[in-house]
Amino acid sequence: MHKLDVLSDDKCWLLFSSKALKHRSARECSELEEIGREIVKKCGGVPLALNAIGSAMQLKSTRSQWELVLESETWNLADVMEGILPALLLSYYDLPPALKQCFAYCSIFPKDWEIEKDTIVKLWVAQGFIGSDTSKDMEEIGGVYFDDLLKRSLLQDDGNIFGWFKMHDLVHDLAQFVAGNDCSITKITQGAIFKLNKVRHSSLTFTGPAAFEVTSIPSSFYKAHKLRTLLIFHKSGSIDSSSEMSEKEKVRSCRVLHKLFHHLRCLRALEMSGAKISRLPRTVGQLKQLRYLDLSDSMIEESSEELIDCINLQSLVLNYCCFLKRLPREMRKLISLRHLELEGTVMLEYLPKGIGRLTSLQTLTDFIVGGNDGCELGELKHLNLLRGRLDIYQLQKASSQEEAMQAELNEKMHLHTLSLYYSYGEVVGDEEQRRAEVVLQGLRPHTNLKVLVIEGYRGSKFSDWMGDPSFSNLIRVELSNCTECEELPPLWNLPMLRKLWVHGCPLLKERYKEGGDDRHKIAHISDLDVW
């Protein structure tokens, strides 16, 4: 083992000044250096403390403000608050009031737990921590809050490509300290009695098989009448799609949730990812304050119709619910819904009619064209707040170019990824080919699009808009199993295109793969894969 020492004085100053004196003039740096070096001495050579206090000092412009930090009594509280670095506490005190409660709320995540930016922002919104602004929506403001905590070293980048973040153990200790009795972390395996009568936000951590039994929730939670957040985390893999629940297990889990929901009327956020439940009880409709519900990776088969009584619901997360077959028929009544996440819900056959009335939707990961049973493409017409990505499935069911144009994808200026999926039988007739071509033509997206994916398309030619130079933001195109197409659209006209993947398209492979007649047209694309 090699014991890491604290930083030397010179390195401490370099680290602190790179934050605190950033973008300042030489005269300002000279005036503040003496005070800054005294502040550095109080950090004890700990990089985390130097990063945090340096970021806080960056926002203080005058010498008197720096002197107030240097002379703060907080530096003398180390003995009173064992394990809490004074520099970190000063950084917390320096936060605006709204950021303080957002930071304290992060203490309900277990230590070393990876936090997704979008998730924590939605939770902040659900708790009412984010104020409204006429120029920005709440999620944008929450994103700014998150970035501010990151900049102040109160959150840290986990270093992966998926945008996950962590909280340093010492910062987590600080968050728990300032949160006090408002927040609680519980391990289900402890089997102890927990006093939760005053707790507002709590998390449970379950370690075990891929699905956790809701009967493992401690009975003390039935008395937590003030609880506003209940997050249940599990540290295991996804549920095996081949596993099934017995009728006895289904009834027992529903009874437990019925009792739980009956008592927790103040819940605003509930996460039960990985839960061994087949359906929600009727009492879910009693959760009138519920804003955030996450049942990802659970064994749920259908959403309770009473879910529509949760009139304040903003986020419904059902990712990778591989048994989910139906959503509530009256989904259109959830007028406050802003995020509907359905990624990986492979058993879901259609979306209920009326989705188009949910005009506050910003996230709709999957849209399934349902013909007579579900939504037509025209339901997308008024959903112009959609952002991020949109996957449209079962496009072979779209009837005409007029139906496709009713979706008005060209008005969805905040979408950056569009995926179009077709699912045909083995034989495709001439009429189906022609219909596929005109439908694709009618699905022209907004020119802000960055990524386009088309899979299973059986038309004999692609649409002209795919090579239109006005799509100057398009950086990636993926085409797979487009077996009838003989020629690419003029993608070489797209100035920002960097990645082109063509898979399972035999006629295109012959023409554009190495040695093909038209290989030279796309040879300049840096990430090119044709097979």
Can you tell me about this structure?
By secondary structure, the chain is α/β, with parallel strands linked by helices. The protein has 3 domains: 1-76, Helicase, Ruva Protein, domain 3, CATH 1.10.8; 95-348, Ribonuclease Inhibitor (Leucine-rich repeat, LRR (right-handed beta-alpha superhelix), Alpha-Beta Horseshoe); 352-531, Leucine-rich repeat, LRR (right-handed beta-alpha superhelix). Helices cover 27% and strands 14% of the residues. The chain has an 8-stranded parallel beta sheet with strand order 4-5-6-7-8-9-10-11, covered by helices on one side. It is globular and about 80 Å long. The model has no long low-confidence stretch (mean pLDDT 89).
Short description:
The protein has 14 helices and 18 strands. With 531 residues, the protein is α/β, with parallel strands linked by helices.
